[in-house]
Design a protein that fits this description.
Number of helices of chain B: 14
Distance between the termini of chain A: 39 Å
Order of helices and strands of chain B: HHHHHHHEEHHHHHHH
Largest sheet of chain A: 6 strands, mixed
Low-confidence stretches of chain B: 1-11
Strand content of chain A: 25-35%
Shape of chain A: globular
Radius of gyration of chain B: 20 Å
Mean pLDDT of chain A: 89
Helix content of chain A: 25-40%
Distance between the termini of chain B: 17 Å
Helix content of chain B: over 70%
Oligomer: heterodimer
Mean pLDDT of chain B: 92
Number of helices of chain A: 17
Chain lengths: 498, 318
């Protein structure tokens, strides 16, 4: 472990709470100059919050941050930039209409005579910055004409322009091809040769082992350990990340042979092509695949949220005619969306209103909502799923992600939904609530519901599914039965042949 | 602790906000009562209510539209078009109830056109109703040739000028409409849909809310209420002017905002909007009693709106 005085970046005892929920419990992080440092942990472990603290988006409640031995206070993004910390977000923060050079100098444009932007110098400087990273990028081209991998490199050049000594990369390879990853590896080598330190956040362990010299592991917002890589074995790292509780969870199947839903040749553009699937009563059907393989899109087509170009959805032998959410809900389908804030919750409305929304007719008499009945049913459902804090009159926006998820599941239970469509059911949910969501999925199956689960997390798919469909480039590439569901098997079908 | 208070259903966030608006009204009333003895009299309070009734009628519809995440800038011209058509029918000898229904149907139809362009047409509410603002005004002017329609039947005018239990007819009509709107907003599925569509349209759609129908309803109600407001006004004036209703939308938006409606959609209250209307009405009434020049009345209105929003921002926390 690097001694504190020689460290490029040193965080001690960083804490952060959102309301009553503490998300960082005294986290420490030490990164040496020129080191690629992995930041590892499951979703909800606190990685994102820690990165947000580092780049000034989220002010910490407590803790010290030193850069090259000097204590710094980071309360705003500006402070982070001044301290030499830059962040490459997973969703790149660029202005697509502006040129590469304009994006590199965004917010810090070079002036001529205090008023006019000095384009020539900006472009020359951008060319110089990109020379070692990727000289093929045209600095006068608008950002929108670049591929994601190139945009990422532009963002790195921007970090170098602001003299960043620490660059944090959040899931930088989530939308890169293997070839583009190799390019990124070279870029990272160039950076570290210049003494820049990299904080590398990724779920992909092979990348972490290839790139990182050390890693910090977080779990449930706590610092677990600091490991040297690649000498620490993968099994040890994963053990630290997951803890013991999830390792022992085993899968119970309630699948029957009764067909509940059939999807035939569902297609939409190039996102989903001729997808077929069959869901049985009591079955949990996992849908795995890479990001962009069409999993979410398929689920949204089944739910009627997006319109299919062709194909049918048949429930209990009857083909559903309407291609809108209402028709699908009437047929017994309910979508638990990935983007909870965008597609799931009505933030300012109480849990009761969020639960009652699809089943208003059921909760009304002579045109008036029976508030008492809605309240009682909500309480009953939320008690079953262990809503915390237990108050159904509170605005749903004030609850944690896991509890919001429980309310969305409760919404479909109240509506009498029999086919649950889960899209990344535990995205942004802490580990404890995660286990509760898995139990809920199991309970649904035990009650005879059919469940589709789209997930990017392999352990999750393996944990909850009776059967797994693997999607690749918009098609259903394989169907794996109970005995064959392994990470290796999923990966083999998910990755496109070169 | 405000947190403990808001957890009791009786003091839910919305009602808490209404109480704040009421405090504002009481403060204004206290100030004017101290400045002029003629302010706090039964007759003057009835005056204020009567003067506020037309703007309240418009503001109720506006509040529903704002809650649904939209805006209706066309209320004034919709009122003018409905009033001139209704008045022309009456003058032509159509029975009063039928002419009244005709006028209201005109308002609802205008609202439907607005809503259709916004939902099926996919246009922004601001632009659609800005276009409507010119379009419906033009129709009213073209239809009347720019001249007012006189000679409204006395039986029709009796409604606007009569009193029931000492209260002017318009106040009673608008109070009833407000009661209905309050029930719709707080106790029916449509009200819940309005909140959901305005709060998060995509999530509402995923949850099976009939988003298009909900938005259409809001604009149709707003158009219908604009027509009713115009009928009250022409009943009082005895003539239907094609230029009536100028800037009505601004008072209605201001009253909704003072009453706690969020222009981002998803939040708002009928009770708050009514109090907002009375605040604006009381302010004008009090300043007139004090013989303050019209220019300064306008200034005071502007200040009240902005101060109300600042207080709202400061007390709502986030």
């Amino acid at each position: 472990m690097t001694s504190v005085s020689a460290a490029r970046l040193h965080l001690t005892d960083v804490t952060k709470s959102y309301g009553p929920i503490q998300v960082l419990h005294g986290v420490s992080l030490t990164v040496a100059p020129g080191e690629v440092h992995g930041l590892l942990g499951e979703n909800g472990a606190g990685k994102s919050t820690l990165l947000n603290v580092l780049c000034g988006v989220v002010p910490p409640d407590g803790g010290q941050i030193t850069v090259d031995g000097t204590a710094v206070t980071i309360a705003r993004p500006k402070d982070a930039a001044k301290a030499g910390i830059a962040m490459i977000h997973q969703e790149l923060q660029q202005v697509p209409e502006l040129t590469v050079a304009q994006n590199i100098f965004l917010g810090a444009s070079l002036r001529r005579g205090a008023i006019f932007v000095d384009r020539q110098t900006q472009e020359a400087e951008s060319r110089r910055l990109l020379a070692t990273l990727d000289p093929s990028i045209d600095v006068t081209a608008p950002i929108r004409d670049l591929r994601v991998a190139q945009r990422q490199i532009v963002e790195i050049a921007k970090a170098l322009r602001s003299n960043a000594r620490v660059i944090a990369m959040d899931e930088p390879t989530s939308s890169l091809t293997p070839k583009e990853f190799e390019r990124l590896v070279k870029v990272i080598q160039v950076l570290t040769a210049q003494g820049v330190s990299i904080i590398y956040v990724s779920h992909k362990m092979d990348e972490v082992y290839r790139l990182c010299q050390a890693a910090t592991i977080l779990r449930d917002g706590r610092f677990v350990t600091h490991v040297a890589l690649p000498q620490t074995p993968l099994s040890t790292v994963i053990e630290h990340m997951v803890g013991r509780e999830l390792a022992h969870a085993h899968h119970r199947s309630f699948a029957t042979d009764t067909v509940m839903m059939q999807v035939n040749a569902l297609s939409r553009g190039t996102a989903v092509r001729n997808a077929d699937l069959t869901l049985h009563q009591g079955e949990v059907l996992g849908i795995a695949g890479l990001v962009g393989s069409g999993r979410t899109e398929l689920l949204r087509l089944i739910a009627g949220v997006d319109r299919a170009d062709s194909g049918t959805v048949t429930v209990d032998g009857v083909t559903i005619s309407g291609a809108n959410p209402r028709a699908r809900i009437r047929a017994g389908l309910g979508l638990v969306p990935e983007e909870r804030k965008r597609d799931g919750i009505i933030r300012h409305r109480p849990i009761t209103a969020n639960i009652g929304l699809p089943a208003m007719s059921q909760f009304s008499r002579v045109g008036l909502i029976r508030k008492r009945a809605l309240h009682a049913r909500s309480q009953q459902l939320m008690r079953e799923v262990n809503l915390r804090p237990f108050d159904v009159t509170r605005a749903i926006g004030s609850f944690s992600g896991g509890n919001q998820q429980k309310a969305i599941i409760g919404r479909w239970l109240a509506a009498g939904t029999r086919i649950f469509l889960f899209d990344e059911p535990t995205r942004g949910i802490d580990v404890g609530a995660k286990a509760e969501i898995y139990d809920l999925i199991e309970t649904l199956a035990a009650q005879g519901c059919g469940v589709l689960v789209v997930s990017s997390e392999m352990p999750e798919v393996i944990r909850v599914s009776d059967r797994v469909l693997v999607m690749r480039e918009g098609r259903v590439a394989a169907s794996l039965n109970a005995g064959d569901i392994t990470e290796a098997a999923i990966a083999r079908h998910a990755i496109p042949a070169a | 602790m405000t947190k403990a208070l808001t957890n009791i259903p009786l003091f839910s966030r919305v009602r808490f906000r209404d109480a704040g608006t009421l405090v504002g009204l009481i403060l204004i009333a206290i100030v004017f009562s101290a400045l002029t003895p003629s302010f706090f009299t039964v007759q003057n309070i009835i005056n204020i209510l009567q003067q506020s009734s037309i703007s309240a009628c418009i503001a109720i519809g506006m509040t529903l539209v704002i809650i649904s995440g939209g805006i209706d800038l066309s209320v004034g011209p919709v009122a003018a078009l409905s009033a001139t058509l209704g008045a022309a029918m009456m003058v032509a000898g159509v029975p009063v109830p039928l002419a009244v229904l005709g006028a209201i149907a005109t308002g609802v139809a205008c609202g439907f056109v607005n809503g259709a362009l916004i939902t099926w047409g996919g246009l922004q509410p601001f632009i659609v109703t800005l276009g409507g603002l010119s379009l419906y005004r033009a129709l009213a002017l073209i239809y009347t040739g720019g001249t007012p329609i006189f000679g409204l039947p006395t039986e029709f005018r009796a409604l606007s000028n009569g009193t029931v239990l000492g209260l002017p007819g318009p106040v009673i009509v608008v109070a009833l409409l407000a009661l209905i709107a309050w029930i719709v907003l707080t106790k029916t599925p449509l009200g819940e849909y309005l909140m959901a569509v305005g709060g998060n349209p995509e999530a509402a759609r995923v949850a099976g809310v009939p988003v298009t129908l909900t938005k259409l309803s809001a604009y149709m109600i707003s158009g219908g209420l604009a027509a009713i407001a115009s009928l009250i006004l022409i009943g009082r004036l005895g003539a239907a002017e094609p230029t009536m209703g100028n800037l009505w939308e601004l008072d209605a938006i201001a009253a909704s905002a003072i009453g706690g409606a969020s222009l981002m959609g998803g939040r708002g209250s009928i009770v708050g909007t009514l109090i907002g209307c009375v605040i604006l009405g009381a302010l004008r009434n009090g300043l007139t009693l004090l013989n303050v020049q019209a220019f300064y009345q306008l200034l005071a209105t502007g200040i009240i709106i902005i101060v109300a929003m600042l207080i709202d921002r400061a007390t709502s926390g986030k």
